[in-house]
Each structure stands twice: as structure tokens, then as C-alpha cells.
Amino acid sequence: MARISLDPPRTILNRVLATYSRRRYGDVLEPLRAVGHHAAVTRTYALTELGVGRWKALDPGLTSLAVMASAVAIGCSWCVDFGYWESEHQDTDPAKLHDVPRWREAGAYSPRERLVLEYAEAMTATPPTVTDELADALRDDLGDAAFVELTAIVAQENYRSRVNAALGLTSQGFSDRCEIPPAGSLAGRGTGSTGGDGQENLQG
Questions:
Q1: How deeply is 11 buried, as exposed, middle or buried, from its count of CB atoms within 10 A (0-12, 13-18, 19+)?
Q2: pLDDT-based confidence at residue 95 (cuts at 50, 70, 90)
Q3: Residue 174: is it exposed, middle or buried by C-beta count within 10 angstroms (0-12/13-18/19+)?
Q4: Contacts of range 161-166, beta carbons closer than 8 Å, 24 or more positions apart
Q5: How many CA atoms lie within 13 A of 28 on its CB side?
Q6: Which pLDDT score is estimated for 157?
Q7: What are the chain's domains?
Q8: Are 129 and 154 spatial neighbours (Cβ–Cβ below 8 Å)?
Q9: Residue 155 pLDDT class (50, 70, 90 cuts)
Q10: Residue of 114 and 177 predicted with greater confidence
Q11: How many Å apart are CA 198 and CA 27, to the nearest integer?
Q12: Which carries the bigger pLDDT value, residue 176 or residue 102?
């Protein structure tokens, strides 16, 4: 159950974002509804995500793995749920996403993918456990621009996952539209949050 109402004020900003979200994703994203109580936070949140969407230095498959590893480590079932849906639309192998909670034992990953998963986990740890050796290996493999983008996307996913988890947001049902459901330690954590009356603001 969400820890904040998912029926935010009916502001122009909230209405615009609801319309955009519904057209792009088929539903209004619950994180938008949750932060919609604070106009400045909502504006920053939306503009940041639009900017992140323009990052192109890192391979999308590596981005998906890094994002999923961070979401799993933090325990954000909303991000895991949405991550499956979003990655399927980016032609990411769903089997690799499925095995992220057990990536060290799984055999589906390339050496580069294992470095990315290790880095995402190390960045997400509190305190971070990134080593010089791991960073150097990724810089050599990816190049500096992609390494910086990887670092930034993991940090962004930490922001998303920690906000969503703290606000009590759980799976919104996006993964139900994919062939493979959320796996590992996050399987079955919630089936959705409630709130709102379906009107054209930040509501589903």
C-alpha cells in the first residue's frame, strides 16, 4: 500500500504529465502520481527522466542490466516490474533480466555484462564498494563516456528505487504484459498500489 495518496492536486503540470504518461506507457506511472503533491519535485523528476532518455553512449542492454541490478539490490518491486516491461520494448533478452538476482551463478552473461552487474551492485551498496580495479576494467572495456553514463544511470536508479520503496510503491502490473514475471527475491511483492478516481490528472 502506498504511503502517500496517489490522488495529487489537479494542477496543469500533473494533467500534462498524466496525458504524456498514458500515451507513452498505457497508464499513468505511480511514481509520477506520488511526487505530484510537490510541483517543484515533480518538474525536476520529469525533466531529469527526459534528459536520461537522451543518453546514448551505453548499450541499452547493459543499461537494462545495471538498472535491474540496482532495483533488485534495493528491493524496489515497482522498478523491477516496470524494468521488465521497458526492457522488452528495447529488445533486451528477458532471460538475462530474469536471472539478475542470481547473476553470479547464472551462465547467460558475457564478461562485460558481469562487470556491469558487479559495478551496479557495488555502487548501490551502502557504503559503495567500487574498487579501482573494477572501475579501470570497465573504463578499458566501455570507454570513458559509456563508463560515466553507466555510473550516472546506476545513481539515477538508486534515486528512483529508494524514493519508490520509501513511498511504498509496489508492482503496477507492467510485467504482467511480458512473457517472464519478476523473479528471484522480489517475486510476488505486491500487485499494485491504490489511489485516485481515474480522472485526467496523475492517476491511472
A1: middle
A2: confident
A3: buried
A4: 161/70, 161/71, 161/74, 161/75, 161/76, 161/79, 162/74, 162/76, 163/31, 163/34, 163/35, 164/31, 164/34, 164/76, 164/78, 164/79, 165/74, 165/75, 165/76, 165/78, 166/3
A5: 27
A6: 97
A7: 57-186 (1.20.1290.10)
A8: no
A9: very high
A10: 114
A11: 10
A12: 102
Q: In whole angstroms, give the CA distance from residue 12 to residue 132.
A: 47
pLDDT beyond 60 at 190: no
Cα–Cα dist 197/204, whole Å: 8
Whole-number Å distance between alpha carbons of 35 and 18: 12
pLDDT at 17 over 70: yes
State the average pLDDT for the chain.
87
pTM of the model: 0.84
- ∠ Cα 83 153 93 (to 5°): 40
Question: Is the confidence at residue 196, as pLDDT, over 60?
Answer: no
User: What's the pLDDT tens digit per position in 70-93?
Assistant: 999 999 999 999 988 887 777 778
Amino acid 189 reads R
